[in-house]
Amino acid sequence: MWYLAILLCATLVSGREVCYDQLGCFVSDEAPFYHADDRPVDYLPDTRDELGTSFKLRTRDLQGAYQELSTYDSDTITTSDFKPWKKTKVIIHGFVKGSDVDWMEDMTNELLIEGDYNVITIDWRPGVIRNEYDEAVGNVRVVGAEVALLLNMIQSIQAVGPTTFHVIAHSLGAHVAGIAGAIIPNIGRITGLDPAGPYFDESDPRVRLDASDALFVDVIHTDTDPLYKLGMGMYSSTGHVDFFPNSGREQPGCDMRIIGSIIAHGRIWGGVIDYIACNHIRAAYLFMDSINSGECPYLAFHCTREWEDYNEGLCFEDTPTAQMGWLADQYAPDEGVKELVYQQNTLDSAPYCGFQYRFEVEIDDGRKAEMFKGKMTISLVGDNGQSEEIPLSPDYRMYDPLTKYLHVGVSSLNVASPSRLYLEWEYDAAFYKPWKWEFVERPELFIHRIVVDSAENQESYLMCGSYDPIEPDVPRAFFRVNECN
């Protein structure tokens, strides 16, 4: 995908019109699908045969097997195991340079564990594997029309309504879902998993997924960096609710160096793809993880687009919350309200859902303390055990005496009611003067009071320690009290 930035710099010229039976006509060089500045893509879409879009149905009764459905043969729908009294989940992949859409199979399994659904996976890899990204963009409309045709056939043959459909789609597939939703009014729900950004961000709503394409549209953004930084997702809000976990940019666990990615994958090309696509595909894994996440609620806070505001704890108080992923439809806003932004932090590996805490730390004793540069971690101990070390900031930062700091951290363990915590810190040696290096003088930190707010429990806990200085790399215990002395 690193070649994508180069490819998108060129303006493409080959505009014409093409018509396909049952799907309609597609003009490639007219608005809104062509714009000389923002969307210089006028490739004609591939033919239906070249696209080879396939549909596979799975249900619990099929016990791991699947049935092919076809828009060319209505009997495949009539004689299938499709149950009209069950809700239907539709899964669509996006831009892939290879054959790795294993996540669709994994998501199907998670859905069938959660409930007895009709699950239809849509495979249009021939429309992306043999094409560059800009050509695949041109195919989105035809695949969207093909998906709409299938869903309309199911409605007619099985006597079901569009509100029973929930389309879950990644990358370019999210815009395929948007096209289908524009054709079929009142689709129940579309979940966009990091909708593709290039040629779609800030474009006409008729071109892309937007809130008008279903009764409820929820979007998870995980790769919103600009294209020159290899970001593949949309920065713009585009649903009724838009979730931006971990800022919507750099996902934890995706900072592995490319050599490490190759080693982890086992193959050079696969490792390169994993390295580049890690942030982009994370949205699919977050949603998949949320389907059966147990007691972990994937709680997110309605907040500004500035992740720093969220990460510094400014969105914890008197702020509406919503659950990202599977249960997001329980937080559908009032009619006419859209593009509500929610922030949260997740863990760096599956299961990704974590329990979020806000820590209020006050650097005290201005007579002895100095401004310092360092980073802190906290480990909570409660009814359910002891958490891992929770970093309060991703990197070294400056701290001033007699100043309160708010940090949001995430733990894999819900410690329930914490009784104590352990704080540990390390300093940035490069910040200190040579005559204050460790072999001469170790800096000391003065903290005796920490307030812990649990996002999930909606409780606040006061922790106090001694007034003695805290040396670097030495854990200091703080105990829960009603009031610090």
From TrEMBL:
Localization per record: Secreted
Domain Lipase: residue ranges: 17-352
Pfam family of the protein (one): Lipase
Residues reported to bind Ca(2+): R208, D210, D213
Keywords assigned by UniProt, alphabetized: Calcium, Metal-binding, Secreted, Signal
Gene Ontology CC entries for this record: extracellular space
Main location, first listed in the record: secreted
Tagged with keyword Phosphoprotein: no
Record's protein name: Lipase domain-containing protein
Biological process according to GO: lipid catabolic process
PANTHER family linked: LIPASE, LIPASE DOMAIN-CONTAINING PROTEIN-RELATED
